[in-house]
Amino acid sequence: MDSARRWNGWGHPDTDYPLPAEALLFLHQKLGAATPLPEVGLDAVVETVPPSRVEAHPLLDTGAEPRIRHARGQSLPDWLAMKSGLYGCFPDAVAFPENRDQLVELLTLAREKRYCLIPYGGGTSVAGHINPRQQPMPVITVDMGRMNRLIAIDKESQIATFGAGVAGPALEAQLRGQGYTLGHYPQSFELSTLGGWVASRSSGQQSLHYGRIEQLFAGGKLETFDGCLEIAPIPASAAGIDLRELVMGSEGRIGILSEVDLRISPLPEKEAFYVAFLPSWDQGVAVVRRAAQQRIGLSMLRLSNPLETYTQLRLAGHASAIALLERYLRLRGNRVGTGGAEGATLLTFGITGSRSQHGATLRQLKKLIRQGRGAYVGTLLGKRWQHGRFRFPYLRESLWQQGYMVDTLETCTPWSNVTPLMHAIETSLREELADEQEEVHVFSHLSHVYPQGSSIYTTYLFRAAQTPAATLERWQRLKQKASRVVVEQGGTISHQHGVGKDHAPYLRTEKGEYGVQRMAQICGLFDGQQQLNPGTLLND
Which of 317-326, 336-345, 491-500 has the lowest mean pLDDT? Predict the structure, then answer.
């Protein structure tokens, strides 16, 4: 258990993301003044933890604080529960296996005693993956954090084997000591774990170069009630159904990963991040679509729509520097908007690889930017993005302390539907609380692009209500409305966050009744009594 982490929020207490005065003024203008919700202390929550229902066992910790720290993830409902102390449900125990033998012992114990098991990596889920629910069977949360070592590395084949509980920074540190990298950088990189990436089909910020977890996951060991499903890290095979696909996205419903084989890469000779501005959203979309379809050798492309561009510049503070930037952009024909759908779009892109390839790739993209009448502004803003790329979740704490709620949702859709779906999502969120005379500030960006389409990542901010329960009701309205729009208008319910419990009700629209039934049957083959993370992935 990492006691150095915040018990009721994101990350480490000694790291923060202060809200500049200009940013607070901006929020007051957009949403109105807000009142922070009250918080309770850890000691008060400890008093609410009920007695455990499990029998004493050397692998099980039934202490109140470990159970509190493993009861919730990092979604907005989780924050409301943690800050208010209104958890509703706790696991009955937490296990911290240190090796495969102990993990297998836990599975045997769970089958014998009829316990439920919930795999816990870094606790970063924003879709309810790790939240226990009230049920007759006792619940054990399995914290995989101690199975975190580099087990083997085959440099000739570029395959590395890790314990599934290794977090992003520790994984990269162990690989870099050998001259390699995985290159998988989700925004949750600081805390999330390898097993969680595989189980939820994670996507990293530089997936254009390194690939999503689908391309990086070579094989490994999945511990099940009936034995170990071992997948050899063969580069390619025509031998029937690819069992890797069975494991990826399974979200703890068929077993628990103990070891993962990864396809790694040598450390790049050069890596840099750049920024450009395009005059309009349509021109920006055209540039990133052409870059993806021409398969230009980038590692990252991120396009903020005009409102996100405007918001980012306002929230950044540094008013004088931003004014100079906006003056320069006007001279180049890129006028930053004033808070609406019109105005310049911010394009952030990365190039990773050999030095010779780096220059050629930069020239290719700069040509597309010129064709789109854009303004290339170099690496200064790109370096700032790189420096703060994993700090954005800390901004949630600063906003919370001022009474503002922030949440995100994401999807993926074909290029022909990207702009219509983005507008539909934003409109649904912007209008949903109108009957309460509450404004919702909404903006989006494209975070992962493909030749056939793109993800859409939408952020929305709104004021806290007078109570945690009323604030949760506001979030539920927003989340449900936008989720229905996503699946009914041609998007996936999740591109990178996974399904969990929050998205499970929408899976039928995407997969179809027959598809969901077959998924349930597969889970039933591995877990006939629904003891493995029940309610997650499937709304059973």
Answer: 317-326
200-210 burial by CB neighbour count: b if 16+ within 10 A, else e? bbbbbbbbbbb
Question: Which amino acid does the sequence have at 344?
Answer: A
Taking the C-alpha atoms of residue 176 and residue 170, their distance in angstroms, rounded to an integer, is: 10
Least confident of 160-174, 327-341, 381-395, 469-483: 327-341
- Structural domains present in the chain: 150-266 (3.30.465.10), 270-387 (3.30.70.3450)
For the purposes of burial, counting CB atoms within 10 Å of the CB of 513, is it exposed (0-12), middle (13-18) or buried (19 or more)? exposed
Nearest-angstrom CA–CA distance, 172 and 162: 11
Q: What 3-state DSSP class applies to 512?
A: helix
CA atoms of 235 and 262, how far apart (whole Å): 11
How much is the pLDDT for 72? 98
Helix, strand or coil, per DSSP, at residue 445: strand
Length of the chain, in residues: 540
* 123 labeled binding residue: yes
Q: Classify 405 as helix, strand or coil.
A: strand
Distance CA 297, CA 361 (A): 6
Tell me if 125 is assigned to a ligand binding site. yes
Mean pLDDT of 255-277: 97
Query: Could you say which of 87, 115, 274, 457 is catalytic?
Result: 457
Note the pLDDT of residue 338: 64
355 is in an annotated binding site: no
* Residue 68 pLDDT greater than 80, yes or no: yes
* 124 marked as part of a ligand binding site: yes
Q: Kindly give, in sequence order, each residue whose CB lies less than 8 Å from that of residue 155, ignoring residues fewer than 6 positions away.
A: 178, 180
CA distance 252 to 326: 48
- DSSP secondary structure letters along 190-259: TT-BHHHHHHTT---TTHHHH--HHHHEEEEEEEETTEEEEE---S---SSS-HHHHHTT-TTSS-EEEE
Q: Are 537 and 251 in contact (CB under 8 A)?
A: yes
State the angle between helix axes of 306-315 and 21-31 in degrees (0 to 180), rounded to the nearest 10: 130
3-state secondary structure 467-487: CHHHHHHHHHHHHHHHHHHHH
Among this protein's residues, is 310 annotated catalytic? no
Q: pLDDT higher for 349 or 325?
A: 349
Which amino acid appears at position 230 of this protein?
E
Q: What is the pLDDT of residues 281-301, one digit of tens each?
A: 999 999 999 999 999 999 999
Q: What's phi and psi for 19, nearest 5 deg? A: -95, 110
- Full-model pTM: 0.95
The pLDDT of residue 312: 86
By CB atoms closer than 10 A (0-12, 13-18, 19+), residue 311 is buried
**pLDDT more than 70, % of the chain:** 97
Instruction: Give per-residue pLDDT as tens, 394-413.
Output: 999 999 999 999 999 999 99
CB 218 within 8 A of CB 262: yes
DSSP of 59-88: TEE--HHHHHHTS--SSHHHHHHHHHT---
